[in-house]
Amino acid sequence: MKLAIPREAAPGELRCAVTPDSVKRLAALGLSVAVEAGAGAGAGAGDAALAEAGATIVDDPRALLADARIVCRVQPPSEAEAEALPLDVLLVSFLPASTPRPVIERLRQRRASCFSFELVPRISRAQAMDALSSQASIAGYKAVLLAAARLPKILPLQMTAAGTIAPARVLVMGAGVAGLQAIATARRLGAVVEATDVRTAAREEVTSLGARFVELELEAQEGAGGYARAQSEEFLKRQRALVAERVAASDVVVTTAAIPGRRAPVLVTEAMVRSMRPGSVIVDGAADTGGNCELTVIGEEVDRHGVTIIGRRNLPATVPAAASQVFARNVAEVLQHLVHDGALVLDLDDPVTGPSLAIHAGEVRSPQMQAPPG
Ligand SMILES: NC(=O)c1ccc[n+]([C@@H]2O[C@H](COP(=O)([O-])OP(=O)(O)OC[C@H]3O[C@@H](n4cnc5c(N)ncnc54)[C@H](O)[C@@H]3O)[C@@H](O)[C@H]2O)c1
User: Fold this and answer.
1) Domain 2-119+321-364 top-level CATH class
2) Ligand 1 centre from 137 Cα, in Å?
3) 210: CA distance to ligand 1 center in Å?
4) Which of 39, 42, 52, 217 is most buried, with most CB under 10 Å away?
């Protein structure tokens, strides 16, 4: 059974769905792995290393996809890429509910089945397949490094004969997977860290990393599956009022607050940016879903009122080797779950497979994808 790995064409996407290690695992499942030439180059997995691990390197994208039963990629396909897929293929990739309708339509026409990483249930059995978490963790780490590199101060306390430098103050808003990794990274660099979240479970996780939890005294916003639920504008207004003082006192604010399938909530207003000391840095880790700061320019780094606001998209792709290593592992786990005795088994009653298939044999199953866009 042939598994094809196309080269990612999205701008700035350097990650790859396989690594030499994962190719070996996939081959052990009885799959013959074909990789488009250059697909792993950005992630440090050159053609030679992938071929040595057992992959066939293919130059022609059409030849790559011919007879492929499974296609694995990082980003959702474009309309043209979806149209080029073989009939009845299994696609394993990120496939958010916001994927453009024409792409979904092409996937339907190809009678594709689509295993979407956004839909993997957060149950212990599926943890090794959880690419949202593996990539969020890398993003949280990188967000703090970007902030540290821009900040005109150092993060740790420094005591020398020339005097004492106080540690920087870092506020992390949203203490999920990315936020917790941001807290851990900022702590390792010696910053004094505070964090806030709307889920009660976050308090213990934050304090166990040596950060202070900012109590909001608002009703908890727990949703399903360990995520936060969508909040009303009234709630967000009260939250902003309560957290404003902490933002003003911070040298660095890293925001990672998100609600699955929705625009990110606005937590940092222009007035809050104005209240920060000149030279302070905000890294908006929610830039991919609209941003948590009112002044974020998506995809850019800007100076507003003397504060550097970083709204880079796709932070995991800026650490492509590490991000691909864990993503490829997630992909291999998915295929280990779906391939039995060399055959593909898409059991809709299985607690991991069923919920994760956004589309099955051309039929859209994800309610969010069926709803009209917007
Ligand atoms: N297999 C598993 O059981 C599993 C795997 C991964 C994560 N989880 C759980 O799910 C949690 C959230 O996961 P995620 O990081 O992918 O979520 P996410 O990316 O959807 O959101 C990031 C964080 O933003 C927070 N948030 C939302 N609105 C906010 C607001 N107005 N103010 C402050 N914070 C706000 C959320 O509560 C969440 O912690 C994790 O911390 C973990 O507890 C469980």
Assistant:
1) alpha beta
2) 12
3) 19
4) 39
Residue nearest to atom 28 of ligand 1 (CA): 257
- From the CA of 128, how far away is ligand 1's center (Å)? 17
Q: Is-catalytic flag, 274?
A: no
Catalytic residue among 75, 113, 133, 250: 133
- Of 2, 71, 51, 56, give the one whose Cα is nearest residue 30: 2
Residue 133 appears among annotated catalytic residues: yes
> How do residues 242-251 score in pLDDT, each as one tens digit?
899 999 999 9
Burial status of residue 341 (CB atoms within 10 A of its CB: 0-12, 13-18, 19 or more): exposed
pLDDT at 239 exceeding the cut of 70? yes
145, burial (CB in 10 Å: exposed 0-12, middle 13-18, buried 19+) = middle
Q: Where in the chain is the domain with CATH 3.40.50.720?
A: 2-119+321-364, 137-318
**Among residues 127, 158, 208, 370, which one is catalytic?**
127
| 137-318 CATH | 3.40.50.720
Q: pLDDT tens, 135-185?
A: 999 999 999 999 999 999 999 999 999 999 999 999 999 999 999 999 999
111 backbone dihedrals φ, ψ, rounded to 5°: 55, 35
Nearest CA to ligand 1 atom 41: 176
